[in-house]
Amino acid sequence: MVRKLSAEKKHEQSLAFGGQALIEGVMMRSRRHMVMCVRKSSNEILTNIEEINSLCEKYKILGLPFLRGIVALFETLYLGFKALFFSANAVAEEEGVKFTYKDFAVAAVLTAGLLSFFFVVPFLLTSLFNLTGVLFNIVEAVIRLAIFIVYLVLVGMWGEFRRVLQYHGAEHKTINAYEAGAPLDIANVKNYSRLHPRCGTSFLFITVIVSIILFSIMPDWGFAVRLSYRLLLIPVIGGISYELLRLSGRYHDSLLMRIATLPGLAFQRLTTREPSDDMIEVAIKAAKETIKLQE
Which of 10, 71, 154, 245 is such that its CA lies 20 to 30 A from the CA of 128? Predict the structure, then answer.
């Protein structure tokens, strides 16, 4: 049974406790460890644990506000790919397939290209209109959100990816139960929401708002320079958004933060699905292993 946490301790641990949906599994992580649990076709749950050595721990200056957000952005992407690589191999090996680090590198490049697509294409489309200043950035952000929504709807229709969205829901339910101090068993966890305010989906929505403000204050030195902003400032936007996400976690009970997190929670209805009991079981196992290591 998970003991009831004090408000201060719950906040401290919740900021360090997160996860990610995998292929037929869930990854949970604390500040020091990453636990990956994958359901095999034999119904066995395969578990892999790795220690996390953050650059923020090694170089204290990188742990300062804003800088830690930039580091966290790259480390989260790296660990996320690593966990996906593990789950993909765990599932594929049963079919006689083995993914290599070359495949891993290709997937990373494609993801970087997709990230660039979401920043560059909306800018190019907005440039077709005769707009300037803040209005340009708002329209650009609306187009970016529209493309993102269409993307989520399309991938959500894909059967295999839908299962990943269900595991995403299982991950959120488990973390919500843990933060509420509830016992981590299927009967309890399934009653919690599949939405969570600190989800990466909410983070993406925050980046849209930050990008509107940041791009609006940058000097207009021509089309090429403005386009380069969209790529060069991605780490800066990520660093600022990370701090805002931490702030929303610290003051999550305030009315202002509840209102501010509503759009991100709404988007999560596209990035999560209600999980089955066996999916929740996988998420619970990953969470329990992470909690045990953390304590």
Answer: 154
The two three-digit tokens of residue 292, written as one number: 């045990």
Token code pair at residue 246: 């931490």
CA distance 193 to 180: 11
**Residue 48 carries which side chain, given as an amino acid letter?**
N
DSSP of 43-84: S-EEEEEEE---HHHHSGGGGSTTHHHHHHHHHHHHHHHHHH
Global pTM reads 0.83
Give the pLDDT confidence of 42-60 residue by residue, as tens digits: 889 999 999 988 888 888 8
Place of tokens 């946490």: 5
DSSP state string for 132-157: -HHHHHHHHHHHHHHHHHHHHHHHHT
pLDDT at 5 over 60: no
Contact criterion met (CB below 8 Å) for 73 and 57: no
User: What is the rounded CA–CA span in Å between residue 83 and residue 78?
Assistant: 9
Q: What is the pLDDT of residue 4?
A: 44
